[in-house]
């Protein structure tokens, strides 16, 4: 049997619209070998996810169809590879899930909301293996521990003893109860990161020959992301599994891939080993992707973007012509300008000469944990005795893993969640004592930009009305003035005011986030909370939005709290950083100090998990693997 598990030749996938035919995948070829990972990288719309769906024979027809090409797969029970494009639909089902498995990007649409996560995981196991229901549930719980939805048994026992005064004989019963409780939860009861890990558990349940991971860590914290990458590498090496790893982040590619295919506009524009791609990228698009991600070891005034490296023009035939700009990576970085430590220190001193805009004192937020009959058994401290100040014009970064309390804290600052105790001052007003009318006035001054721009916008409202809505609600001016303000803001965030009558579904994720930013600026606020507002974006679009937020801060004198689980992004944006863990502040300090001199093991763990994409890390990984 060949070491080549997957051999794709001249694959072409088209989608038919009312106006034209789109080549989503345009005559691409690649191989995936046993025990190796092919990383496929590119922005949204590059064709990388469509490529994975073609391999799985899941292209929706209509409107899409595979128009040409071959997909050769080396099945476990076959001496010679088979062309999946010639296999009937009923036969292809025996390969899906058991021999070719896929981790999808959006777990909420992949899991059935009316069934528990445990039921769906057990179903996936029993569909391919002849085992009992009880054994399948035991396997399901073990898989959840493997992907860190549940802690290992010894850690669970330690937590049980910390939280409850029970005898040793009762520990095992409580351990099984907690495992059962997790298996019996429905998808809506879990975080996005937990749901993605359940999808990974389902994908690896039957030990597939080929695992396709489509953006499997997009929703995860950097530490959990690192754990998942370690897990995928371990599974690949131990089981001799072949893997396709699809992402928009070359930093992740450096951590897991052996070979890399860079996709742009449906084509593979660069293909080679991971070391070749990172040490000597040839295509301007690859150079742009490598450079636009925030680099934690250097502080730039603004982030380079893909457009700094390439020019795209249209030919008379309708084809796009890509030309490299006459500048290399070092020239672009020089133009971006590194900010000196002395300049950062002086900026912080100038900011702190003023009274704080926001002051938080001994804040506590608790959620009741209810028993079987609805009575409150205990309280979960989501935010526990937190105190800090935010100065006018400052960006205060808030970083930590899912569940650390950062988003709860952000919503409490705007009184979207009521605290248990503590004080929150905004310009010397204790907002916890404000009446409804006073609170309404406060929300003209303080806004929030959420993580998911699509769910933040009403799909039935065009974007012009969406940006004007705050002005209409607060009655500031007439319809003509509202429209002029909306046009100015859309133009300011890089969108054409002529698009005001378009609807959210007509825009990309990055454009939708720009619309949300424009709406948040409608009432001229002083204070904006950015809650994971760039985590769902491609790295190139992320760079554009981060640069935009910095420009808007300088223009409008904005004060930000910038929340993210990605410390490299937070470091680029922030003057100071708060690191949160389990509802408490682990440490607070300047962005550079937190990164270069972390004071706690938790912060050091966050920093070590950042996928920096360095050549040294790639070489170390390859050496340790071959040892």
Automatic annotation (TrEMBL):
PANTHER family: D,D-DIPEPTIDE TRANSPORT ATP-BINDING PROTEIN DDPF-RELATED, TRANSPORT ATP-BINDING PROTEIN. It holds the Pfam family oligo_HPY. This is Putative nickel import ATP-binding protein NikD. It comes from Leptolyngbya boryana NIES-2135. Transmembrane segments: none annotated. It comes from the Bacteria. PROSITE patterns: ABC_TRANSPORTER_1, ABC_TRANSPORTER_2. Belongs to the ABC transporter superfamily. Keywords: ATP-binding, Nucleotide-binding, Transport. GO terms for biological process: peptide transport; transmembrane transport. GO terms for molecular function: ATP binding; ATP hydrolysis activity. Residues 8-290, 358-607 form the ABC transporter domain.
